Amino acid sequence: MSNITLKKIAEELKLSPSTVSRSLRDSHEISQETKDRVRALVAKLDFQPNPHASSLRKNKSKTIAVIIPEIENNFFVQVLNGIEEIAQKNGYHVLIYITHENYQREVDILHMLRSGRVDGIMISVASSTTNFEHLTAYVELGVPLVFFDRVCEIMDAPCVTTDDAQAAFEATEHLIKTGCSKIAFLSLDGNLSISSRRRSGYLEALKQYGLLNNKIIVECCLDDEATRQKIRSLFLRENKPDAIFTAIEKFSITTYEVCKELQIKIPEQVKMISFSNLTAASLFNPSLSAIIQPAYGIGRESADILFRLIDRKKLLPTQKKVIIPSHLVIRESSPVQQIVL
Amino acid sequence: MSNITLKKIAEELKLSPSTVSRSLRDSHEISQETKDRVRALVAKLDFQPNPHASSLRKNKSKTIAVIIPEIENNFFVQVLNGIEEIAQKNGYHVLIYITHENYQREVDILHMLRSGRVDGIMISVASSTTNFEHLTAYVELGVPLVFFDRVCEIMDAPCVTTDDAQAAFEATEHLIKTGCSKIAFLSLDGNLSISSRRRSGYLEALKQYGLLNNKIIVECCLDDEATRQKIRSLFLRENKPDAIFTAIEKFSITTYEVCKELQIKIPEQVKMISFSNLTAASLFNPSLSAIIQPAYGIGRESADILFRLIDRKKLLPTQKKVIIPSHLVIRESSPVQQIVL
Q: Of A33, A63, A208, B198, which has the fewest CB atoms closer than 10 Å, so is most exposed?
């Protein structure tokens, strides 16, 4: 019966939680009939109002915090929209914090949130975050916290991600099947688990097709000019790649720009594929093959889990590690008609 | 001398404001030499520490709120980055709230902010907002508030915008000069001052070139499917437009998609131009001519003004209504080589 809360009783009887609460306190504002209905169900369910939970509930801020590394990325924008939809249904406001991939800012934000201004936290960690102490403190205190996309796998908190390794495997396999054998993989530097999952999918596909010796891994950073320079070097080296697979949407745009600058034709001279949730990717010249992540679903699912935690409901076993599949959309930058294997 | 603050004295003497403050309180932690330097400057400037300001400062949340209508728009994303840069320099955190163009949400957010959780507010109003009472209350109470982009011109609060009418005039004039005479203007429905400024620039250009009778104004909404249908109708009617000028980035993407669907060639059959801060617009097929707004600058300038208000500094006369020019970038969707006039 530990999961029985005031809210559930209210739902069951189609009353507001406050009416149930006042009935239990024998308030004069509530009719005798309603009080009897509430008491009957409470007796049936063996419900003990939790005074601690009740006092906590009074102090609720009705606000949740979402901490993301950046917003110049359609993935995070769509996740936010999913979160906002669920938050609105629950009568909650959403505060958005941006770390700009900076570990210290992430720490500062978490520190500021200690004052209890929010009832729960959803976070996608910064690429520079390798120490998670600022987060373990919250989890240990029992503050509702959900990781999404860029998660901390060693921590005992729910995680919502996509199947990064599988998606990267499929994208790489697709490039191999269209005849590519020198596929460069561009990912974000740092120690993100998401980067290593994507890289492992890429490497696994190369391995299965006997191309592991041809691996080209390029670690890029968020500085546009530095990334541009790295991509230029790729095309100017002796052993040029015949395909580019970018793990980050932004890098695909820079790659297109560099190809334009160096007059390298996509897909004739180099094929392209990217993790990208950019709607306009289909309008590119040529249109960009993309792994589309279920961003909106990740936002909704993460928020659903957070509200279960906030409402002190038990999570379903499937809600502890949620993986929502991405899907690959093949467009002109890596056309299927060229499949040779 | 009313503008002389602790902070300025600190800057002048290359000390921290807290050192200045402690010097004035004759703290034992501060050397006599420093105290003398501070006192000398204070005497010179006739500075009176303001006890009210000082007590207010102690209660500062060190947080500002930014309220925007949506985030699936590169303009707002870039504005936010500009704001964050200035906020970080001032040691402030930024809370981001999204109204999703919903007036009631805007009211709710403003209501929630009454608890004093932020020291200042920056807002770009929702397209459905026509009543500004929820904002006047703040301004009358003297809460630091700055409007940007979508402003309320009748209110006595600083506004930071771009030269919407002028930019729309130039874009329309460019289309006319490339030979277009039936230019459709697609804008967001509602009563935003920004929409009417852009529309007036479009109409003024038509007027100057004797094309006012050819005006085609289409009001679109945020529902993608409804907008798509309106654009399709435009191309299926008797008197088709020979150019489309979209006042909102999102509508340009839908227009490209509809042209693809109906096999209408840009720029051969219809020319295109849009207000857009999408980096990838140069990668479109064909690349999109765009009015690029100074989004980052609008963010920085708005934040600068807000921090002047928070620090109780007087605004410069030029900071009350700031207009930062946009610039027009001509690309393949409305090529200059076709200029006929």
A: A33
